[in-house]
């Protein structure tokens, strides 16, 4: 089952490190880092049912929202 309640032991530290991870990268490099991070974390989770829940939750409200723009449209 996907955990959706706050579960990070140091959320502010994680956020700062996530921002630092992207510092100085182009949009394309940043997207690649995000993809690699997602795949590493998915491998760590390992349970397809949990990953499906996470993917559904991440997409929720995004595809149905006509004001949401893709990264390529923002350039």
Tell me what the structure shows:
The protein is an all-alpha fold. The chain has a domain at 38-62. Helices cover 63% and strands 0% of the residues. It has four helices and no strands. It is globular and about 35 Å long.
Which descriptors apply to this entry?
single chain; 75 residues; mainly alpha; 4 helices
- How far from one another are the termini? 37 Å
The helicity comes to 55-70%
Summed up, the helix count is: 4
The H/E string reads HHHH
Beta-strand fraction estimate: under 5%
Indicate the mean pLDDT: 90
What structural class should be given to the helix and strand makeup? mainly alpha
Quick overview:
The chain has a domain at 38-62. 63% of the residues lie in helices and 0% in strands.
Layout of SSEs?
Layout (H helix, E strand, L loop, with lengths): L10 H12 L4 H19 L2 H12 L11 H4 L1
């Amino acid at each position: 089952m996907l955990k959706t309640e706050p579960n990070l032991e140091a959320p502010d530290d994680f956020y700062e490190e996530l921002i630092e991870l992207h510092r100085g990268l182009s949009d394309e490099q940043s997207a690649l880092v995000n993809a690699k991070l997602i795949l590493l974390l998915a491998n760590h989770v390992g349970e397809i049912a949990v990953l499906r829940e996470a993917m559904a939750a991440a997409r929720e409200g995004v595809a149905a929202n006509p004001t949401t723009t893709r990264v390529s449209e923002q350039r």
